[in-house]
Amino acid sequence: MSALMKALFETDPASAAILAAETQRQRETLVLIASENYASPAILAAQGSLFCNKYAEGYPSRRYYNGCQQEDAIEQLAIDRAKELFGCEHVNAQPHAGAQANTAVYQAVLQPGDTILSLELAHGGHLSHGMKLNISGQLYQIVHYGVDRASGRIVMDQVAELAAAHRPKLIVFGASAYPRHFEVERFRAIADSVGALLMADMAHVMGLIAGRAHPDPVPFCDLVTFTTHKTMRGPRGGMILCREALAKDIDRAVFPGQQGGPFMHNIMAKAVMLAEAASPAFRQYAADVVTNAAAMAATLQARGYALCSGGTDNHLLLVDLRPQEITGRDAANALEAAGICVNKNGVPFDERSPMVTSGIRLGSPAITTRGFNVDAATLVANLVADVLDNLDSPTVRDRVRGTVAELCAAHPLYDGYLPA
Ligand code: DSN
To answer: Of 216, 262, 383, 420, which is least surrounded by CB within 10 A?
Structure first.
């Protein structure tokens, strides 16, 4: 155990015991939650660094506090690495999360009452794209496009029609539960046809973009937001990329518009994440995430499960459980009991509530970080199907849990972090 961990166990045994239990849970379960991943030891070290002690309101070389030389250096390093990796004009590395990044964009480029055109939450969108209880839904007029009932794909003709009818100031694409690529060039053309700005929220797929395993929207968009802890495999947080013309407004909206002191320890971890994401190993990782998701999709389909949109282009699958007449909640609970963690998820045109749902969302990013290849991903998908086929069978649950334990033992996590 490291000296820092030793200090934690000595200072606060109660908290340390909870961390130990969580470490065990992460080591002994399979994570198929599409938005989760494992940060590297280097990223954990950066997040636990003494950069957490420093106030540094402002931006590199324009701070409101003294003593920020190393804060300037680390934030500039993160910015320069992001510019290089994504080929963008301006970077803001300070948003505490994806929702803050999106809210800052809205504050920067819109006035209250302006119109945003975005994907319906129930069709795979995100809270911060205009849900009525979110600040985005309260400050702005929201118009939503959706997916086609048969194909499960975004209906681009509807996007064009809604844009022409409502003249949005901002068009947003990006999603939390959409398994397909986006028609970026068509979005750009539609935005241009009505004089709207175009924002991509790439929270889910930015790691695939960094690893060149997903079409790159950056050249086509005025603004790109993303979270750093999903496929990017970094610390929890958000970032914004934009054109130089919007740089001042974006920076002002993040600070002082939305936030106070930046989390410098997290910005250090973002810098480390960007170095990792530029490596050849990360390119292989991104390719493997897509290959593993495709293998899981094919396996589940062969076992008789319906996938929204009929498959996947990226890291996630949305299983529609309506034909089996089981709820997403029951499916997710049964899988958790068998050692496999997924989330219940509404499917487009779902009749059930978001707390029950008719689907589950699966993703390959975490198991791929853990070193699972296509054969192992296929086995995992078969285990999922075994549980779903036998939802109430303790025998099947125990057998699957045994296989999960073997898989976890063969793909150890965070060796030496805490005693096993
Ligand atoms: N909550 C995230 C997800 O699970 O996709 C989106 O922010």
So the answer is: 420
Do 371 and 411 contact (CB within 8 A), yes or no? yes
User: d(Cα 25, Cα 412) in Å, to the nearest integer?
Assistant: 12
Q: Is the CB of 35 under 6 A from ligand 1?
A: yes
The answer to whether 93 touches 101, Cβ cutoff 8 Å, is no
Residue whose CB lies within 8 A of the most ligand 1 atoms, among 31, 32, 33, 35, for a mutation test: 35
Mean pLDDT of 22-37: 98
Please give the domain boundaries of the chain with CATH numbers for all domains. Answer: 45-277 (3.40.640.10), 282-410 (3.90.1150.10)
Ranges 10-14, 118-122, 180-184, 416-420: which has the least confidence: 416-420
The whole-number average pLDDT for the span 116-136 is 98
Under 8 Å between Cβ of 96 and 84: no
Q: What tokens were used for 368?
A: 């791929």
Whether the model clears a pTM of 0.70, i.e. scores above it, the answer is: yes
d(CA 314, CA 181): 7
Q: List % helix, strand, coil for the chain (3-state, nearest 5).
A: 50, 15, 35
Strands (E), 260-410: 306-307, 316-320, 340-341, 343-344, 359-363
- Test site for ligand 1: of 176, 316, 341, 344, most ligand atoms within 8 A of the Cβ: 176
Number of Cβ within a 10 Å radius of residue 292: 25
Q: Is 176 a pocket residue for ligand 1 (Cβ < 6 Å)?
A: yes
